[in-house]
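Let's practice the habit of predicting before peeking. Look at the sequence and jot down your guess about where helices and strands might fall. Then scroll down.
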Amino acid sequence: MRVRKQSLGDRNIVGEKVEARRREINMKQKDLLTQLQIKGIDLNASGLSKLEGQIRYVTDFELKALSEVLGMTVNQLLGIDE
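Done guessing? Here is the structure:
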């Protein structure tokens, strides 16, 4: 497992949760990218890495697909109590 060299950015609030959940369910970035592509989200490895590092904005379409693939609600990804 690689360790992040840069500190987290401030362009989104879901990246850290996406990475944590992906690791929790033992999913590789490549597998997450495949699942997102099935849902119509065309994201490359660099884009996902930047998303998880919070140095890239997340679109609403991506947020919805991430929540479905990772088995989380959008509110959970956003850190909103349900």
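How did you do? The chain has one domain: 15-76.
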